[in-house]
Amino acid sequence: MATLESGPVPARRKRVPVLLMLALSLAYRAEAASGGAATLARTGRSRSGAALAASLTHGPRSTKLDRARKLLADYRLEEADGLLQAALDEGARDVETLVLAGRIKEEMADGPAARRLYASAVDSAPEDVEALSLLARTLLGVKDYKGAARHLRVALKGDPESALAPSVAALYHLQRGNHKLAASYVERALEADPASKEAALVQADLKFLRRDLEGARHSIERLLAANPADPDGLYMMGIVLFNQKDYDGAQKYLERSTGIHRYAANFLKDLAQVYAQNGHLRKAIATLDRVLELTPADDAATSLQANLRERLELVESGVRRQVGPFRFVHAPGLSRDTFDNIVGIFEDAYREICPELAYMPPKVDVWIFARTGSLLPAYYSHVSDEIIISSAYFGSIDTADKRKLGRHLIFHEFSHLVLFQALGRPAFSPMALWLLEGLAEKQAGGYDYTAVDYRKTFASGLLDLTELADYLPVSAVGAGEKREKAYIQAYLMVDHLLARPRGLELLRQMVLAYAAGKSDSEVFAEAGLELPAAFVEAVAQRLRARPGA
Question: Which pTM does this prediction carry?
Answer without folding.
Answer: 0.77
